[in-house]
Amino acid sequence: MQRERVFNFGAGPGTLPLAVLQQAQRELVALPGVGASPLEVSHRGTWFRDVIDRAEEDLRALLDVPPSHHVVFCQGGATMQFSMVALNVVAEGTPDFVVTGSWGTKAVAEAERLGGAHVAWTGEGDGFRRVPSSKELAEALSADASYAHVTTNETIQGVAFAHTPVVPDGLRLVADASSDFLSRPVDVSRYAVLYAGAQKNAGPAGVTIAIVADDVVKDVPDDLPTMLDYRTYVEHGSLYNTPPVFAIYVVGLVARWLRDDVGGLDAMLERNRAKASLLYDVLDGAPAFFRGHAEPGSRSLMNVTFRLPSDELEERFVDEAAAGGMTELKGHRSVGGIRASIYNAMPVEGVRALAAFMREFRDRYAD
Ligand code: PMP
Asked: Which of 83, 141, 148, 247 has the fewest CB atoms lying closer than 10 Å?
């Protein structure tokens, strides 16, 4: 039976900081000063009020969220945000979608059900290997669109924007940042809405963070169902109904860890770059054996995706790695191959171990 912690390369829910898990463990049965579990306390009590306020404050500080933007905690995953964005961000015109992988494709499908979507740029033709250049983006996007939607990091393909995409003046930019949220500093002021399911970098599944510009909130149409209306969350401090108390508590612990242990998002980005390059260096050093999926300029720092010479070798790679304490390396069922998710909480030791295993595996199996 597995008793030790493995290096978990799963794409989400992903690995969490050990210090956070240990604090949650210490407090699970009886919170100091409260005497009840974070799984049992009222969302209306002072303990939780303090937790949610501090979580918001820390997220604001980490991301330097300007006063023009609200930070709200929703449920329903990033998938529900596909619908909420389409319902809430309304203006003349159809939204322009920049599709760089599977999640952008899903976002388009939801917007199509709710008024329409225009695929302004897609990487589908070459198997989602890159993001568009600034020039391609400028040519593809229309200032008359109601908003532009991007996926900052495509979790399945491992394709990411290295910088905030530039959109025409006046065009609202919406981003699904689920899998690179809190992995780097972001200029939040450039976004009308930035949303992220927590279960990769920010905490456990069950809570989705949405950062919404006040001018979007002011324009929300009046006839939306209560829980699909951003105003409900803004006006009630994300406490209109019972929120996912435990998940928000853990998001608060992760935000504290990022602030106090890591030292903020600049330091996090530095760590993430160093970790990712350990793996990309292995791919680049043996291109006949490891075939990286993403083009170099579009490589994700969070999800490193590659193929081996055969399906059989990929299966063996996943099995041998798991036997060595490195789990969840199988690529998404829709694309196959190998995917190493190296979120914020993956220690550099785990990435070093994987890089060493990759080299050794190649030495054993390359022709
Ligand atoms: N967008 C991205 C980029 C994702 O990685 C995921 C989940 N893997 C989703 C959306 C869907 O998120 P959820 O499962 O929280 O609905």
From this structure: 83
